[in-house]
């Protein structure tokens, strides 16, 4: 199970994993819509990083699981969250996410770490822009009201 780890270590690992899961579920329940999308970006980036590490380590199962998770975040999370009636930006993001899904599927089939890196580079400016919008929203929420 955990190599030469004791049963106590295995229970501690499971307990830690359960604690982390509860923390994530609490974050999701209390998060604003903006924060939920930021969490999807973070999860996508983490899944891609994990897949690159798995490819480097020769761990085919972890690579496949991580890339499947990344594609699901793109398709079922980020693409699904787009408001396609809001204009060209939504169309461009939908097309970017579709391209990334194709590249990540290619990476999964061929163990192509460079395709994953390409997707991370494509995602970075979108993720940073989204984070800056959140920071601006926080600043405006916490700014003192001006006298009229």
UniProtKB/TrEMBL annotation:
Where on the tree of life does the source sit, at the highest rank? Bacteria
Q: Name one GO biological process term.
A: bacterial-type flagellum assembly
Localization (cell): Cytoplasm, Cytosol
One cellular component GO annotation, for this chain's record? cytosol
UniProt keywords (A-Z) are: Bacterial flagellum biogenesis, Cell projection, Chaperone, Cilium, Cytoplasm, Flagellum
Q: Which residues cross the membrane?
A: none
- What is a single Pfam family found in this protein's UniProt entry? FliS
Q: Which family does it belong to?
A: Belongs to the FliS family.
Spell out the NCBIfam families in the cross-references. Answer: fliS (TIGR00208)
Protein name from the UniProt record? Flagellar secretion chaperone FliS
Give the classification, highest ranks. Answer: Bacteria, Pseudomonadati, Pseudomonadota, Betaproteobacteria, Burkholderiales
């Amino acid at each position: 199970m955990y190599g030469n780890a004791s049963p106590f270590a295995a229970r501690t690992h499971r307990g830690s994993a359960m604690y982390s899961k509860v923390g994530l579920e609490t974050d999701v329940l209390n998060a604003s819509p903006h924060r939920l999308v930021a969490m999807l970006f973070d999860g996508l980036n983490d899944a891609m990083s994990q897949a690159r590490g798995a490819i480097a380590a020769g761990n085919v199962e972890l690579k496949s699981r991580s890339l499947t998770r990344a594609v699901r975040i793109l398709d079922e999370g980020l693409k699904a969250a787009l408001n396609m009636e809001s204009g060209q930006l939504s169309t461009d993001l939908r097309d970017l996410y579709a391209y990334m899904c194709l590249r990540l599927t290619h990476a999964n089939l061929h163990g192509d770490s460079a395709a994953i890196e390409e997707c991370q580079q494509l995602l970075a400016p979108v993720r940073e822009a989204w984070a800056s919008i959140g920071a601006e929203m926080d600043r405006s929420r916490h700014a003192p009201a001006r006298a009229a």
